[in-house]
Amino acid sequence: SDVYKRQEYGEIWLVRHGARADYAGEPVPPDAAAVGDTPLSGLGFLQAEAVASRISQETAVGRLLVSSYARTLQTAAPLSRAIGKPMCPENGLWEARMPTPPLDHSSTHPDLIDREYLTQIEAHRPEDPGRYSERVQAIAALVSREAEACSEQGSLVVVTHASLVVGITAMLSKTAPSCLPLVPTASFTRLRKTGDQDWRVVSVGCVDHLEDPSKQHGVGGHDEYLPAASSFWREWEQQAGAAS
User: Fold this and answer.
1) Which residue blocks in the chain are alpha helix, DSSP H?
2) Handedness of CA 151, 157, 161, 165 (dihedral sign)
3) Are 240 and 176 in contact (CB under 8 A)?
4) Which stretches of 182-227 are assigned E, i.e. beta strand?
5) Greatest pairwise CA separation for the chain in angstroms
6) How far from 30 is each of 4, 45, 131, CA to CA, in Å?
7) Spatial CA neighbour of 180 closest among 168, 166, 190, 193
8) pLDDT tens, 147-202?
9) Residue 101 vs residues 73, 107, 158, 232, 244: alpha-carbon distances, Å
Protein backbone atom coordinates (compact mmCIF):
# COMPACT_ATOMS: atom_id res chain seq x y z
CA SER A 1 0.00 0.00 0.00
CA ASP A 2 1.02 3.59 -0.63
CA VAL A 3 1.54 4.63 2.99
CA TYR A 4 1.37 8.30 3.87
CA LYS A 5 4.88 9.78 4.11
CA ARG A 6 4.87 12.37 6.84
CA GLN A 7 5.67 15.98 5.89
CA GLU A 8 6.49 15.16 2.25
CA TYR A 9 3.15 16.24 0.79
CA GLY A 10 -0.42 17.18 1.51
CA GLU A 11 -3.10 14.63 0.70
CA ILE A 12 -6.90 14.72 0.45
CA TRP A 13 -9.33 11.83 0.29
CA LEU A 14 -12.74 12.97 -1.01
CA VAL A 15 -15.29 10.28 -0.15
CA ARG A 16 -18.88 10.05 -1.34
CA HIS A 17 -21.32 8.58 1.19
CA GLY A 18 -22.53 5.01 0.93
CA ALA A 19 -25.73 3.74 -0.68
CA ARG A 20 -28.94 5.51 0.39
CA ALA A 21 -31.92 3.82 1.98
CA ASP A 22 -34.48 5.53 -0.25
CA TYR A 23 -32.75 4.40 -3.47
CA ALA A 24 -32.76 0.84 -2.13
CA GLY A 25 -36.48 0.98 -1.36
CA GLU A 26 -35.85 0.82 2.39
CA PRO A 27 -37.99 2.85 4.83
CA VAL A 28 -36.95 6.41 5.67
CA PRO A 29 -38.38 8.38 8.64
CA PRO A 30 -40.87 11.00 7.37
CA ASP A 31 -39.02 13.93 8.95
CA ALA A 32 -35.78 12.85 7.27
CA ALA A 33 -37.47 12.25 3.92
CA ALA A 34 -39.05 15.71 4.04
CA VAL A 35 -35.64 17.43 4.04
CA GLY A 36 -33.68 14.92 1.93
CA ASP A 37 -31.70 13.74 4.95
CA THR A 38 -31.79 10.09 3.97
CA PRO A 39 -29.82 7.54 6.04
CA LEU A 40 -27.72 4.73 4.61
CA SER A 41 -29.20 1.47 3.41
CA GLY A 42 -28.06 -1.87 4.77
CA LEU A 43 -25.56 -2.02 1.91
CA GLY A 44 -24.46 1.54 2.69
CA PHE A 45 -23.44 0.55 6.22
CA LEU A 46 -21.34 -2.32 4.82
CA GLN A 47 -19.74 0.10 2.39
CA ALA A 48 -18.95 2.49 5.24
CA GLU A 49 -17.07 -0.25 7.09
CA ALA A 50 -15.17 -1.12 3.92
CA VAL A 51 -14.23 2.53 3.32
CA ALA A 52 -12.93 2.79 6.88
CA SER A 53 -10.82 -0.33 6.44
CA ARG A 54 -9.41 0.87 3.12
CA ILE A 55 -8.44 4.36 4.26
CA SER A 56 -7.13 3.40 7.70
CA GLN A 57 -4.85 0.78 6.12
CA GLU A 58 -3.51 3.10 3.42
CA THR A 59 -2.89 6.39 5.18
CA ALA A 60 -2.59 8.19 8.48
CA VAL A 61 -5.50 10.60 8.91
CA GLY A 62 -4.84 14.10 10.21
CA ARG A 63 -8.42 15.34 10.18
CA LEU A 64 -11.91 14.16 9.23
CA LEU A 65 -14.31 16.74 7.75
CA VAL A 66 -17.90 15.57 7.25
CA SER A 67 -21.17 16.90 5.87
CA SER A 68 -23.71 16.78 8.69
CA TYR A 69 -26.33 14.76 6.79
CA ALA A 70 -27.23 11.37 8.26
CA ARG A 71 -25.76 9.37 5.37
CA THR A 72 -22.40 11.18 5.46
CA LEU A 73 -22.07 10.94 9.24
CA GLN A 74 -22.96 7.25 9.07
CA THR A 75 -20.37 6.72 6.33
CA ALA A 76 -17.65 8.52 8.31
CA ALA A 77 -18.42 7.00 11.73
CA PRO A 78 -16.57 3.67 11.24
CA LEU A 79 -13.47 5.54 10.07
CA SER A 80 -13.69 7.91 13.05
CA ARG A 81 -13.72 4.92 15.39
CA ALA A 82 -10.91 3.16 13.53
CA ILE A 83 -8.51 6.12 13.66
CA GLY A 84 -9.58 7.47 17.06
CA LYS A 85 -10.28 10.96 15.74
CA PRO A 86 -13.61 12.83 15.79
CA MET A 87 -15.75 13.93 12.88
CA CYS A 88 -15.76 17.70 12.22
CA PRO A 89 -19.23 18.62 10.84
CA GLU A 90 -18.83 21.27 8.13
CA ASN A 91 -21.96 22.92 6.66
CA GLY A 92 -20.03 23.91 3.55
CA LEU A 93 -20.07 20.22 2.59
CA TRP A 94 -23.87 19.97 2.57
CA GLU A 95 -25.79 18.44 -0.34
CA ALA A 96 -26.59 20.72 -3.27
CA ARG A 97 -30.05 22.04 -4.18
CA MET A 98 -31.79 21.06 -0.95
CA PRO A 99 -34.48 23.61 0.08
CA THR A 100 -34.00 23.13 3.83
CA PRO A 101 -31.14 22.15 6.20
CA PRO A 102 -30.67 18.54 7.34
CA LEU A 103 -31.82 17.31 10.73
CA ASP A 104 -29.67 17.77 13.84
CA HIS A 105 -27.69 14.57 14.38
CA SER A 106 -25.38 15.83 17.13
CA SER A 107 -26.92 13.46 19.67
CA THR A 108 -26.71 10.45 17.33
CA HIS A 109 -22.91 10.22 17.47
CA PRO A 110 -22.09 12.03 20.74
CA ASP A 111 -18.72 10.35 21.19
CA LEU A 112 -17.59 10.82 17.59
CA ILE A 113 -18.37 14.49 16.84
CA ASP A 114 -15.87 17.25 17.56
CA ARG A 115 -17.92 19.70 19.62
CA GLU A 116 -15.19 22.33 19.44
CA TYR A 117 -15.15 22.50 15.65
CA LEU A 118 -17.06 25.52 14.30
CA THR A 119 -18.32 25.29 10.73
CA GLN A 120 -16.41 27.65 8.46
CA ILE A 121 -18.87 27.98 5.58
CA GLU A 122 -22.64 28.29 5.69
CA ALA A 123 -24.78 26.71 2.99
CA HIS A 124 -27.77 28.95 2.31
CA ARG A 125 -31.19 27.30 2.17
CA PRO A 126 -32.70 27.57 -0.34
CA GLU A 127 -29.57 27.92 -2.45
CA ASP A 128 -29.63 29.57 -5.88
CA PRO A 129 -27.05 28.76 -8.59
CA GLY A 130 -24.92 31.80 -7.77
CA ARG A 131 -24.64 30.94 -4.10
CA TYR A 132 -23.95 27.31 -4.90
CA SER A 133 -21.09 28.30 -7.18
CA GLU A 134 -19.66 30.54 -4.45
CA ARG A 135 -19.92 27.71 -1.93
CA VAL A 136 -18.06 25.27 -4.18
CA GLN A 137 -15.20 27.74 -4.55
CA ALA A 138 -15.15 28.52 -0.81
CA ILE A 139 -15.24 24.89 0.33
CA ALA A 140 -12.49 23.92 -2.12
CA ALA A 141 -10.28 26.65 -0.67
CA LEU A 142 -11.09 25.51 2.88
CA VAL A 143 -10.32 21.87 2.08
CA SER A 144 -6.96 22.91 0.61
CA ARG A 145 -6.07 24.93 3.71
CA GLU A 146 -7.15 22.18 6.09
CA ALA A 147 -5.14 19.57 4.18
CA GLU A 148 -2.00 21.67 4.32
CA ALA A 149 -2.55 22.46 8.02
CA CYS A 150 -2.80 18.78 9.02
CA SER A 151 -0.20 17.45 6.59
CA GLU A 152 2.31 16.63 9.34
CA GLN A 153 -0.26 14.38 11.06
CA GLY A 154 -1.70 12.76 7.94
CA SER A 155 -4.22 13.06 5.14
CA LEU A 156 -7.37 15.13 5.24
CA VAL A 157 -10.44 12.92 4.71
CA VAL A 158 -13.63 14.64 3.53
CA VAL A 159 -16.92 12.69 3.52
CA THR A 160 -19.53 14.49 1.48
CA HIS A 161 -21.90 14.22 -1.51
CA ALA A 162 -21.22 13.53 -5.19
CA SER A 163 -21.79 17.16 -6.21
CA LEU A 164 -19.14 18.37 -3.79
CA VAL A 165 -16.67 15.62 -4.71
CA VAL A 166 -16.91 16.78 -8.32
CA GLY A 167 -16.81 20.47 -7.45
CA ILE A 168 -13.85 20.28 -5.05
CA THR A 169 -11.89 18.03 -7.40
CA ALA A 170 -12.51 20.35 -10.34
CA MET A 171 -11.45 23.42 -8.40
CA LEU A 172 -8.32 21.99 -6.79
CA SER A 173 -7.03 20.05 -9.80
CA LYS A 174 -8.12 22.72 -12.31
CA THR A 175 -9.90 20.06 -14.32
CA ALA A 176 -13.14 20.59 -16.24
CA PRO A 177 -15.95 18.62 -14.52
CA SER A 178 -16.84 16.77 -17.73
CA CYS A 179 -13.33 15.26 -17.70
CA LEU A 180 -13.75 13.77 -14.23
CA PRO A 181 -14.71 10.12 -13.65
CA LEU A 182 -17.97 8.82 -12.25
CA VAL A 183 -18.63 9.23 -8.53
CA PRO A 184 -20.47 6.09 -7.36
CA THR A 185 -21.48 5.56 -3.76
CA ALA A 186 -18.66 4.84 -1.30
CA SER A 187 -16.06 5.97 -3.84
CA PHE A 188 -13.01 8.09 -3.16
CA THR A 189 -10.95 10.60 -5.09
CA ARG A 190 -7.42 11.03 -3.81
CA LEU A 191 -5.55 14.28 -4.43
CA ARG A 192 -1.98 15.15 -3.55
CA LYS A 193 0.12 18.31 -3.48
CA THR A 194 3.90 18.52 -3.22
CA GLY A 195 5.54 21.82 -2.37
CA ASP A 196 4.18 24.71 -4.43
CA GLN A 197 2.64 22.46 -7.06
CA ASP A 198 -1.10 22.36 -7.77
CA TRP A 199 -3.30 19.63 -6.34
CA ARG A 200 -3.52 16.64 -8.66
CA VAL A 201 -5.65 13.52 -8.70
CA VAL A 202 -3.43 10.52 -7.98
CA SER A 203 -6.07 7.80 -7.74
CA VAL A 204 -9.79 7.10 -7.72
CA GLY A 205 -11.55 4.00 -6.49
CA CYS A 206 -14.44 2.47 -4.66
CA VAL A 207 -15.35 -0.58 -2.62
CA ASP A 208 -16.25 -2.38 -5.82
CA HIS A 209 -16.64 -5.74 -4.12
CA LEU A 210 -19.84 -4.30 -2.61
CA GLU A 211 -22.05 -3.62 -5.61
CA ASP A 212 -24.67 -0.88 -5.38
CA PRO A 213 -27.79 -2.05 -7.32
CA SER A 214 -28.90 1.60 -7.61
CA LYS A 215 -25.90 2.58 -9.71
CA GLN A 216 -28.15 4.63 -11.97
CA HIS A 217 -27.99 7.16 -9.15
CA GLY A 218 -24.19 7.28 -9.25
CA VAL A 219 -23.33 10.43 -11.13
CA GLY A 220 -20.41 11.74 -13.08
CA GLY A 221 -18.78 15.10 -13.54
CA HIS A 222 -20.86 16.16 -16.51
CA ASP A 223 -22.67 19.45 -16.83
CA GLU A 224 -26.17 17.97 -16.64
CA TYR A 225 -25.27 16.42 -13.28
CA LEU A 226 -25.23 19.87 -11.69
CA PRO A 227 -28.20 21.64 -13.31
CA ALA A 228 -28.39 24.22 -10.53
CA ALA A 229 -24.96 25.53 -11.47
CA SER A 230 -24.78 24.57 -15.15
CA SER A 231 -23.88 28.07 -16.34
CA PHE A 232 -21.05 28.18 -13.80
CA TRP A 233 -19.60 24.89 -15.00
CA ARG A 234 -19.97 25.85 -18.69
CA GLU A 235 -17.98 29.02 -18.04
CA TRP A 236 -15.42 27.00 -16.05
CA GLU A 237 -14.95 24.53 -18.91
CA GLN A 238 -14.61 27.33 -21.46
CA GLN A 239 -11.89 28.94 -19.36
CA ALA A 240 -10.14 25.60 -18.85
CA GLY A 241 -10.26 24.98 -22.61
CA ALA A 242 -8.87 28.40 -23.41
CA ALA A 243 -6.00 27.89 -20.97
CA SER A 244 -4.98 24.51 -22.38
Assistant:
1) 30-34, 42-58, 70-83, 129-149, 162-173, 230-243
2) positive
3) yes
4) 187-193, 200-206
5) 49
6) 42, 20, 28
7) 166
8) 999 999 999 999 999 989 999 999 999 888 777 888 889 999 999 998 778 899 99
9) 15, 17, 19, 23, 39
